[in-house]
Amino acid sequence: MEPTVMDGKLLAKSIRIELKKRASALAVRTGKIPMLATIMAGNNPDSLMYIEMKAKNCAAVGIESKKIFLPEDANTQSVIEIIRSLNSDPLVTGILLQHPTPPQIDVQACFDAIAKEKDADGVTSASFGAMSFKREAFVSATALGIMKLLAHYRIETAGRHAVVLGRSPILGKPAAMLLLNADATVTVCHTKTKNLPEMVKQADILVAAVGRPRFVQAQWLKPGVVLVDAGYNEGAGDADLDNCIPLCSAYTPVPGGVGPMTRVTLIGQTIEAAEKLFNEN
């Protein structure tokens, strides 16, 4: 049987149709348009490409985007000052700090400066804590995008063993918590994990988020695994996808899988924030 291709590009397209309706209705009701503000420090070409893609996606649903560029030598305080100004800007409803940032910047300190009600990317400690306890919160856009893909393609999570390969605070950890909240049994693996191939082979659902091209090998996989490849490394994912596909019951393509879902989830949370902020004011 051919594996199911979990097409994030197609699903994101259908979600954008609904988001456009919500943004339009909000504009009619309040006279205001949601806005995503993106901050980028440095000149990473991949980050610049992602920012342009996010701005394009914002335009596609009828919301505004604002891009703020800081020099390579920007420090933590300068980023926080920008974030605080955006927190107090009534036109801005979502704030994104593009990562990675230059090494001198304390990324989590900057994330935590984002007002919780504008944390469209779900990166603050407060948002993570609330999400972990199933409280209302914005969620890591990539992790939530993954869960939406699994739900759309009717991938059962309850009682299944999910292995998350990667422990970053913006993807691995929130993905693990969302899967745990969805009643999966979750193992988190990382660079210090011993016998990594044997651990990965236990996965009914594997989320590959290690940031290394073609790292996951076909011989590591259990037949019938659901493979969510959240990596993007110059056109390659974190799995050796061509060789892994025959072992999968379902998988995400790269590109066109997780990436589009990250962007549409980010925009969706920006609109959700606007609905709350505009209706309160």
Features:
281 residues, three-stranded parallel beta sheet, globular, six-stranded parallel beta sheet, 10 helices
Strand content: 15-25%
Bulk shape? globular
Class computed from helices, strands and strand pairing: alpha/beta
- Total strands: 9
The main pleated sheet reads as: 6 strands, parallel
The topology string of helices and strands comes to: EHEHEHEHHHEHEHEEHEH
Ends apart, CA distance between termini = 54 Å
Mean pLDDT: 96
Helix content: 40-55%
Helix count equals: 10
Strand line-up in the sheet with most strands? 1-9-8-7-5-6
- Rg computed from alpha carbons, rounded to a whole number of angstroms: 19 Å
**Which residue ranges are poorly predicted, with pLDDT under 50 across at least 5 consecutive positions?**
none
Helices and strands, with pairings:
Layout (H helix, E strand, L loop, with lengths): L3 E2 L2 H23 L4 E7 L3 H17 L2 E7 L5 H12 L6 E4 L9 H7 L11 H8 L8 H12 L8 E5 L6 H10 L3 E5 L6 H5 L4 E4 L16 E5 L11 H4 L3 E4 L6 H23 L1
Parallel strand pairs: 1-9, 2-3, 2-4, 5-6, 5-7, 7-8, 8-9
Helix pairs in contact: 1-10, 3-4, 6-7, 6-10
